[in-house]
Fold:
Amino acid sequence: MNVLRSRATAVILVLCLILAWLIFDQTSYANPLRDAFSRAVSPLQFVLQTLASPVTRVVSLVGHLKELPSENEVLRRQNAELRNQIILLQEAQIENETLRRQLDFKSAVPNFRLLSAEVIGHDPNNLSQYLILDRGGVDGVQRGMAVITAEGLVGRISEVSADSAKVMLVTDPSSSVSALIQRSRATGSVQGYPNGELRMRYIPQGDTVAPGDIVLTSGLGGNLPRRLVIGQVASVQRTDVEMFQEAKLIPTVSLHDLETVMVLLSFTSSEPGSESDGK
Amino acid sequence: MVLLAVLQSTVTSHIRVLGVSPDLVLLFSVSWALLEGTQQGLFVGLVGGAALDMLSGAPFGISTVSLLIVSYLASLGALNVFRTARFLPYIAIALATLVYSLVFLGLLQMAGRVVVWGPALWRVVSPAMLLNTACMPLVFNLVLWVHNRIHVRTVEWE
Structure:
């Protein structure tokens, strides 16, 4: 009897709750029963949802297991293609920047007739410093022509074949270039030194040279144009017993990383009527 | 050897340690001469030197003569009582780098080029000796592997 009574009570209670729920829902007021229910159930919902999500994923994965290897292969190929495209675009961007710099330089020096050339090799010996270019006699390159970049002097053509040429770098010990200090106009001769250094020799004792000074070509002899940047003074050696001073220079051009250069085919100096064929 | 010379001119010239690059052709020539003896050593030195000369801006023949001398001297190691010594390749490459550089610089000077001996020896040759010696284990073992492949030893029971 008791059991029956308690069941009836429970049923009545539930019915009452349902009725109350419906009444609250029909009125414009907030349903406190729904709120209480939501509050009680939502933590459980959260826990179950968190647990269910990986399970759902695994179930879905099992369903797609057959397609996965082929899909993986397609994605891998796409990834490789995209990576390749990115590398090519980066290369194109670098090349574009180099060419733009060269173009800016060419328009800045209208008196220079320049030929772009790619560096295709370096001297294999550590004891001599040369570059090999992809342009030769067919392109008008001749022995003695200056090779430059927008940053400054690279060297001079020492050997020419039909479609390639060798450049003796300014840093080769056999290279010698007439130069002047931009600030003080002191003159001297820039010579290469083992291990890619530069030394400016024969600077008269009375002339002022200081670290940081820019060294340019003097144009003496007419083989090279004036005012090409060679390097920057790093330190100065001066002794009272010597007739001349000597300065250690840092080349402005990074000679080991060169990819493209310009061969100076001919130039006219700033003085009107004077022209040289760049040799 | 030509391929090695081209590699030395294009790829390894960008690998700069202490301001110098490894001399692949020299490393190979010395290793080969140590393993194969005078005749083979001289042949490899000749071909390697000519390949270097073709790519170098230095007067033609300097690398060939320098490498021939070094390969000959190294091949003496193959006849030597120390031929089985493990340290031989390392000593050989260090001395070979020194001799090669001295002959190269001497001939360069005789050809009328400017040679600044002191700094060249101190700043180029010394680091090159260290770098080539450091590269020797790799190159020598590679050459040894090739050597063993060519000269397969067979034992027959009679």
Chain A has a mean pLDDT of 82. Residues 38 and 217 of chain A are 86 Å apart (CA to CA).
